[in-house]
Amino acid sequence: MKILMNTKLIDRGQAKVDIEDRGYQFGDGVYEVIRVYEGEIFTMDEHLQRLERSAGEIKISLPYSLTELKDRIRELVSVNQVWDGGIYMQVTRGVSPRNHLFPGSDIPAQLVAYPIPSKRPEELQKTGVEVITAEDMRWKRCDIKSLNLLWNVMAKQEAADAGKFETIFVRDGIVTEGSSTNFYAVKDGTVYTHPSNHFILNGITRLKILEACRNAGVNTVEREIQASELDQYEEAFISSTTIEVMPIVKIDGKSYSKGKPGPVTLSIQKAFRDLLPDRKKD
Ligand code: PMP
After folding, report:
1. What GO terms are given for molecular function (predicted)?
2. pLDDT of 278 above 80
3. I need a labelling partner for 225 at 20 to 30 A (CA). Which of 4, 7, 43, 99 fits?
4. Per CATH, which fold does 122-280 belong to?
5. Contacts of 17 (CB under 8 A, 6+ apart)
6. Smallest CA separation from ligand 1 atom 12, residue
7. Active-site residue 145, yes or no?
8. What is the pLDDT of residues 79-93, one digit of tens each?
9. Which residue among 16, 59, 140, 145 is the active-site one?
């Protein structure tokens, strides 16, 4: 496998991380995961713009322009013959003697991108998944796709240890998002999801789902969902680049839409798939 390390495509075995890379020592960096469907890079512009925004919010300058980056990512997909998979990419503040203070502006950011396996979880998309809730203990800039994922990692593990798929975060009584997903609840045919502010990552899949809902004539409302009122909703689902639209059938043991994916969720799943590169449409 070839990986992109700054400006060069090199063999995976040749890639080394310096012990003083700030990503390694401080989690001082940002990342993206992009989906490739049948060789086509899905929503690359949106992901790269979000990468640039995340980096900018923590005062990292990307080492290339987005146009150059796009060309390099296309090259990466092509040399590795990625057909149905993903691309992981991250940018750190660079390599410098350990010190909390930013290094000088002469220290370049370090970029790495490489293919990762990613297959649509088709079975789970049909059956739906169970989730649990937990307190959202993350910092208050969840809109930045930061490498600091400690609470997300803890929460995902807690779900797995309980035999569940995902943990949904609750901050001050409000449902925010999942440990690696956005969250939606459905009532009377309307889809509700948290507004895109500092408390959630504005998922690229979320944006596409809102578009898919418009296409399918499904009403959407971006507004806070009270955790205490969750049981008043009929359906729920989560989304991300890798899982797309994933129905939730139980939250903390309580069933939604009789323990099966709900009809509105299934119609959104379909409308989302209709936005994917041609050959993936059902
Ligand atoms: N929220 C969080 C916390 C995430 O980690 C992710 C996945 N990166 C998402 C939402 C979904 O984002 P996207 O649809 O861009 O994959």
Report:
1. D-alanine-2-oxoglutarate aminotransferase activity
2. no
3. 43
4. D-amino Acid Aminotransferase; Chain A, domain 2 (3.20.10)
5. 23, 24
6. 203
7. yes
8. 999 999 999 999 999
9. 145
